[in-house]
Amino acid sequence: MLANCNGHGRCNTATKTCTCFEGYGAATDVAVYKAPDCSQRVCPAGPSWGGIPTDETVAHALAECSDMGVCDRSSGQCKCYRGYEGSACQRSTCLNGCSGHGRCVSMREMATITSAFPLSPAATYEGAEDTTTWDQNRIFGCLCDSSWAVGLGSGQRQQSEWFGPDCSLLRCPTGDDPLTAVDETDCNGKTATDSTSVGQPGNRCHVDCANRGICDYTSGTCMCFSGFYGSNCASLSPVKT
């Protein structure tokens, strides 16, 4: 009689079949495989990262480990593929933990924070069941740290101090190009779109090395061109006479 359902289900002596408890192959469990004797665990399920749409707006059906991991039948835990995490592998990971220079946030949070990215008006999401936003709390990315103000919430066009997909790169000191009559770091009146003005008094742009040097983004230091000096290459070398 299927080993009395291994203590994880009820045995129907008439049909000699098991009705497994939840987590061991119950009818409500989402699983690729269910042991008929309730001897193996099933794993947590989440909306499939892939899957085949069954209708115009019907896709991402529940799947064990969200189709991005392998179920350990002995423990009932998902072993997620690289780049995914969570009990059901239901969310993407942030590269290298944002290198200690940022925080890992969801696509939804990143879109709605006005201080997140310069020249990017905040977006709002519809309901969580909206077919276009099914992954809003599943895809994560790094929001990098900065020692200076960035983003629309600060009225700034400046990029963050740390940047890159894992926040491992460091911008160089900003500066005004000494060979032009225009202050490249002055961003008053600059706009994000034709209809969205982000220019505010004191609004600043970031110009690596004052356009007169090359930035080493691994260290955040400027390598100035000949004739220029300073931490941001914004100073002209004295002319020798």
Automatic annotation (TrEMBL):
<dbReference type="InterPro" id="IPR013111">
    <property type="entry name" value="EGF_extracell"/>
</dbReference>
<feature type="disulfide bond">
    <location>
        <begin position="205"/>
        <end position="215"/>
    </location>
</feature>
<dbReference type="InterPro" id="IPR051216">
    <property type="entry name" value="Teneurin"/>
</dbReference>
<dbReference type="Pfam" id="PF07974">
    <property type="entry name" value="EGF_2"/>
</dbReference>
<keyword id="KW-0677">Repeat</keyword>
<dbReference type="InterPro" id="IPR000742">
    <property type="entry name" value="EGF"/>
</dbReference>
<protein>
    <recommendedName>
        <fullName>EGF-like domain-containing protein</fullName>
    </recommendedName>
</protein>
<feature type="domain" description="EGF-like">
    <location>
        <begin position="201"/>
        <end position="234"/>
    </location>
</feature>
<keyword id="KW-1015">Disulfide bond</keyword>
<dbReference type="Pfam" id="PF23106">
    <property type="entry name" value="EGF_Teneurin"/>
</dbReference>
<feature type="disulfide bond">
    <location>
        <begin position="224"/>
        <end position="233"/>
    </location>
</feature>
<keyword id="KW-0245">EGF-like domain</keyword>
